[in-house]
């Protein structure tokens, strides 16, 4: 199984990556994890991969292409762990996921001479993922010892916004303290917010906190977009006490 994670949206880029995968393995199972990552947001991609890879079968190949440095000297890597495989630019995207796992081997992918300088997703990563899915990990490139680290900021009760979902919910990497009310500080502003177990409990036009599906606190606005009120983005520091 090849699982795709990109910031490519609904254009042709994801479709042609699937074509490349099928050219290598016509019987490949391809699953779309997410393609609406904010453009070039390594933070958002890192969070989505970390929070969701565990729901897929062992042996899955995660092809992750959020690549602000495409065409530069940044490395491209394939990683084998005891549970899964990962293919991605070596820009820190994989770090939060891999630090939770036992890494067996890391290989550096060689960029084909004729590869587009703007589309390694098609000309490098998709093909590598398909070859891994067929059992060819050991044929990909030379073994290297480490990958780039990229930590999602967390210090006591200060964390960051890791994602704004399509409903306008502001997702943080801070866990619930199991309290009914919280103080929220971000961008020099301070809010008092109630915590509710479900959306329907909140009043209309009330900013409130809820525990999301990744077991962290999210700021929501019932039947509307919390982020249209707060105007935050992935990477914004936030303190919830």
Mean pLDDT: 96
Structural class: alpha+beta
The ordered H/E elements are: EHEHEEEHEHEEEEEEEHE
* Total of DSSP H or I helical runs spanning 4+ residues: 5
Largest β sheet strand count, sense and barrel closure:
7 strands, mixed
Strand adjacency order, main sheet: 2-1-3-5-4-6-7
Low-confidence runs of at least 5 consecutive residues? none
Q: How much of the sequence is in beta strands? A: 25-35%
Gyration radius, in Å: 19 Å
Number of beta strands: 14
Query: What is the approximate shape?
Result: elongated
In percent, how helical is the residue content?
A: 10-25%
Q: How many angstroms separate the termini? A: 41 Å
Describe what this molecule looks like in 3D.
With 241 residues, this protein is of the alpha+beta class. The chain contains five helices and 14 strands.
């Amino acid at each position: 199984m090849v699982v795709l994670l990109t910031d490519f949206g609904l254009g042709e880029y994801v479709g042609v990556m699937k074509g490349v995968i099928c050219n290598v393995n016509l019987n490949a199972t391809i699953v779309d994890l997410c393609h609406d990552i904010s453009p070039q947001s390594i933070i958002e991609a890192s969070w989505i991969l970390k929070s969701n890879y565990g729901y897929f079968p062992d042996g899955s190949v995660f092809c992750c292409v959020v690549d602000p440095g495409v065409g530069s000297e940044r490395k491209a890597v394939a990683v084998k762990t005891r549970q899964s495989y990962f293919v991605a630019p070596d820009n820190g995207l994989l770090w939060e996921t891999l630090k939770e796992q036992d890494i067996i081997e890391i290989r550096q992918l060689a960029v084909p001479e004729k590869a587009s300088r703007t589309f390694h997703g098609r000309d490098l990563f998709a093909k590598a993922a398909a070859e891994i899915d067929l059992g060819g990990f050991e044929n990909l490139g030379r073994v290297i010892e480490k990958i780039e680290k990229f930590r999602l900021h967390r210090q006591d009760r200060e964390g960051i916004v890791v994602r704004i979902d399509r409903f306008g919910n502001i997702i943080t990497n801070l866990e619930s303290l199991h309290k009914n009310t919280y103080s929220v500080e971000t961008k020099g502003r301070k809010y008092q917010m109630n915590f509710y177990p479900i959306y329907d409990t909140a009043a209309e036009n009330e900013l409130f906190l809820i525990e999301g599906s990744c077991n962290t606190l999210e700021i929501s606005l019932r039947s509307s977009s919390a982020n249209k009120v707060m105007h935050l983005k992935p990477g914004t520091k936030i303190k919830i006490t």
